[in-house]
Specification:
Layout (H helix, E strand, L loop, with lengths): L15 E2 L2 E7 L5 E4 L13 H4 L5 E4 L15 H14 L5 E6 L1 H12 L4 E7 L14 H10 L4 H12 L2 H12 L8 H14 L5 H16 L2 H10 L4 E6 L7 H10 L4 E5 L6 H4 L1 H21 L1
Parallel strand pairs: 3-4, 3-5, 5-6, 6-7, 7-8
Antiparallel strand pairs: 1-2, 2-4
Helix pairs in contact: 2-3, 3-9, 5-8, 6-7
């Protein structure tokens, strides 16, 4: 399956549901809802969203305070999960496939564990997962930077420094170097959409706060690994985990530990791919997900 170009006007006409900005890629059948990672937006799905629409009605959203969505009362993970649940209720989906990358994966796990009636299938793309040590595959420079961003005050200062020191183009370039294994693979029109959004967010007073306070909430969740394990074991939906083996943010070892908690889940590790396989290798990523969803459809047809 080849990737399909997205509509470049989607950033200029805001569409709201449950107070969240979102985009409908089209398609029919059971909905597929796409949730981005920390510091990202629905634009993170532009390279694969149109192709996903061949698998079902596909929509992507901006979490509160990210992309073009205004923040809610705070940036706790529970608030993000509640926003996703409200969004699902607002668009009238009774059963859906939930797809989350990084922070979005963690948020989707929370939704699936609390509302099993809503989520029929779950796809976790490099999901944010508590660290496991020792780990010889850890990318320490990235981990130290992420740890600093999660410290109240320090993260805010660093975020404001980046915001004022670098142009939107430079910020996007730095981000792509972090989240992809090979930034040149990201389609140019998708990169352009990132830059357009970065220009808009420069004037958003909550932009840096959304990043640092959400990062802090993730760190607080990591300090309660038993609660995390209980949440994972409550999930009822068939689940696929996809991760790039060149991921600098979520170590492959952490995701392998997550998979060990649920051996009934499927794990696909993608070579030569970073933290965002949907940007790094969109055609391969879509094939992985399509093959997995097809197996599920075939299994139901034979039962």
């Amino acid at each position: 399956m080849r990737s399909v170009a997205f509509d470049p006007t989607m950033l200029t006409s805001q569409k709201l549901a449950a107070g969240l900005n979102w985009h409908d890629y089209g398609g029919s059948g059971e909905p597929i809802v796409l949730v981005h990672g920390l510091g990202g937006s629905l634009a993170n799905w532009h390279a694969v969203g149109p192709a996903f629409s061949k698998l079902g009605r596909t929509v992507a959203l901006d979490l509160p305070g990210f992309g073009l969505s205004r923040p809610r009362s705070d940036f706790h993970l529970t608030t993000h999960a509640a926003a996703v649940t409200d969004f699902i209720d607002t668009i009238g989906a009774s059963q859906l496939t939930l797809v989350g990358n990084s922070l979005g994966g963690l948020v989707c796990e929370m939704v699936a564990s609390r509302r099993p009636d809503l989520v029929s299938k779950l796809v976790l793309v490099s999901p944010a997962t508590p660290p496991r040590f020792p780990d010889d595959r850890l990318h320490w420079p990235t981990q130290l930077r992420l740890a600093a961003e999660a410290i109240p005050g320090v993260g805010l200062a660093l975020g404001n420094l980046v915001r004022h020191k670098y142009s939107p183009e430079e910020i996007v370039d730095l981000s792509l170097r972090l989240i992809t294994h090979e930034p040149s693979r990201v389609p140019p029109d998708v990169v352009e959409s990132f830059v357009d959004l970065a220009r808009e967010r420069v004037d958003f007073p909550w932009a840096v706060k959304a990043l640092t306070r959400t990062a802090n909430s993730i760190a607080m969740t990591y300090r309660r690994p038993r609660d995390f394990v209980r949440m994972i074991r409550r999930i009822e939906a068939p689940t696929l985990i996809v991760q790039g083996l060149a991921d600098q943010i979520v170590s492959p070892g952490w995701v392998e530990w997550l998979h060990s908690l649920r051996s009934d889940w499927d794990l696909v590790q993608m070579e030569d791919t970073g933290h965002t396989p949907q940007l790094d290798a969109p055609v391969r990523f879509i094939k992985v997900v399509d093959d997995w969803l097809s197996r599920g459809r075939d299994a139901r047809g034979k039962s």
